[in-house]
Amino acid sequence: MTEENIIVSVEAKFPQLKGLMRLPRPRRIFVDVQPEDFRNIINFCREELGFISLSTITGLDELDRFSFIYHLSREDGILINIKIQAEKTLPQIHTITDIFVAAEMYERELEDLLGVKVIGLKEGRRYPLPDSWPKDDHPLRKDWKMKVE
Amino acid sequence: MHDSHDVRIPVGPQHPALKEPESFIITLRGEKITSVNIKLGYNHRGIEKACEERSYVQDLYLIERICGICSHSHSTCFAQAVEEIAGVDIPPRAKYIRTLIAELERVHSHLLWLGVAGHEVGFDTLLMYTWRDREVVMDLLADITGNRVNYGINTLGGVRRDVSPDQAKAVLKALDILKKQTDYYVEIATKENTLINRLSGVGVLKHEDAVRLGAVGPTARASGVNSDVRKDDPYAAYGELDFKVITDNHEDVYGRTLVRVGELYESYKIIRQVIERMPEGPLTQKFPRKVPIGEASSRYEAPRGEDFHYVKSNGSEKPERVKVRAPTLANIQSVAHMLEDRYLADMPIVIAAIDPCFSCTDRMVSLKKDKQHKECLTWGELRKYSIAWHKEHGFDPDVLNLKYQRGLKS
Predict the structure, then answer these.
(1) How many CA atoms within 13 Å lie on the side-chain side of B31?
(2) N or C end of chain B, less CB within 10 A?
(3) In order of start, what are the domains of chain A with their CATH numbers?
């Protein structure tokens, strides 16, 4: 399956993505999707298109909003980067741990470093900040500055 | 479900088998582990945040220090992402030199692992052999790059040092020595029943679990997952070189041993090709101080598995965002799975088998028998306990050690 085939398959299943998928270089697909669609798209990529591995999830503070990129890869090296956005005022996203078990640590990282609520993520020990770190202090936010006492 | 027979053992956060200190809270029933609770992040240094406040070149050196063993992996992975955004194609000779250092790094890392694995099961002669041979590679790295670790060979747009004809000759000579030694390790790994029996069926990770839990690198390949970024998503000079992806279907620590030993041969093959085919030409391509707006996802097959970097630029001389995912994090859920329903005595080798970096500091394990009685074991004592337990059950590393020491003399 080539990158072009993958793009055609995704667009056929999700017509709202028509023309939005980018292929800046071989084996790299980028696409921005709506938060209400993203779990279906990720599930489709895994079940139907062979994206069996989740490389990681990147969280970005883009000043007026948060963005999250889910990096999924196939065994032949094609990587799809699926990006969603969340409101800054009420940052929350849904978990994908039911689709990719491996997402657990990556989602905990988003909760700790960016302060986004991951709905559906099971209870567990925080990662990567220490247990004593304040619950409302998220160092990867752009307005976070080192506090010197 | 806990009952009165369950014992909870906190292992860590100060822990020897890991490049990052980690905490494993293990629940035991008798000798068997019933559940594992893992807490990570004790060595979180805020490098991603720090990268946002430094220039790309400064970041390259900072990122090289994420890991002391696969430092070249991280710096190359980052450099590739930034070069992709800037649209800079590095010169062919630089690609070959990056590949050379990458494979030398893999060889020293795998030899280090083989020694650690031997040590964890009490076969210390193997540790002495492999770490002696590893020095051959370390000397090459020091000679070519100027450093034993944190080589500093990369720069944005290429590499900082050339490989002279004399150095190339020294590499080929060293390959002959290493190949001979590796033949010997293969003989041990494939013919020595005591070792085979000790490692077989330990730390089992079924193929479907390896895929489900997102395992990477030799850990995944020993469960039959045919994935290697060098082959699947070629970078540097790998697309032009001939090598095989080593997989195995043992799905246990023994399989992981075979994969790593097999990969040593492939690395020798790659290194020989790199030396023979290295094109002449410049080492660097001019690189802009300010990187244009863009983003890139970069992947790299580190000795422990897929290393992943995402870089986003904003047009300035500092990145907007740098995201790093090292292979150990991807393998950690597999470790928890491998430990469940297995013997406590297998814990050191199972954890070591995903190849986390080893710290030489001795660590503490405390056994909480009940509220009144507390027993403390250092990691050394836990290791001794593990060796003694297996001696009682038929695996005697002393016999192996003696046998190979005799072999060394003859």
Answers:
(1) 8
(2) C
(3) 3-89 (3.30.460.80)
pLDDT tens track, chain B, 410 positions: 556 678 998 887 876 655 557 788 889 998 899 988 888 777 788 899 999 999 999 999 999 988 888 899 999 999 999 999 999 999 999 999 999 999 999 999 999 999 989 988 899 999 999 999 999 999 999 999 998 889 999 999 999 999 999 999 999 999 999 999 999 999 988 898 999 999 999 999 999 999 999 999 999 999 999 999 999 999 999 999 999 999 999 999 999 999 999 999 999 999 999 999 999 999 999 999 999 999 999 999 999 999 999 999 999 999 999 999 998 888 888 988 999 889 988 888 888 888 864 221 222 344 444 545 555 666 677 778 888 887 887 778 888 778 777 766 55
Contacts of A52 in chain B (CB under 8 A): 211
B152, B64 in Cβ contact below 8 A?
Answer: yes
Cα–Cα distance, B345 to B248 (Å, whole number) = 25
Q: What does B90-130 look like in DSSP terms, one character per residue?
A: PPHHHHHHHHHHHHHHHHHHHHHHHHHHHHHTT-HHHHHHH
Mean of all residue pLDDT scores within chain B: 88
State the nearest Cα–Cα gap between B128 and chain A, in angstroms: 36
pTM of the model: 0.89
Residues of chain B with CATH 1.10.645.10: 47-337+346-361
State whether A130 and B42 contact (CB < 8 Å).
Answer: yes
* Cβ-Cβ contacts under 8 Å, A99 against chain B: none
The segments of chain A whose pLDDT lies below 50 read none
Token pair of B303 as six digits:
């000795």
Closest by alpha carbon to B124, among B132, B116, B134? Answer: B116
C-alpha dist (Å) from residue B70 to A77, B83, B153, B161, B326: 21, 20, 13, 19, 10
Does the beta carbon of B206 lie under 8 angstroms from any beta carbon of chain A? no
A53 interaction partners in chain B (CB closer than 8 Å): 211, 214, 216, 227
Residue A44 has phi, psi (to 5 degrees) of: -65, -45
- Our measurement of the distance from residue B61's CA atom to the centroid of its chain's CA atoms, rounded to an integer in Å, reads 20
Kindly indicate whether the domain formed by B47-337+346-361 is annotated with CATH number 3.40.50.300. no
| Contact: B325, A30; criterion CB under 8 Å | no
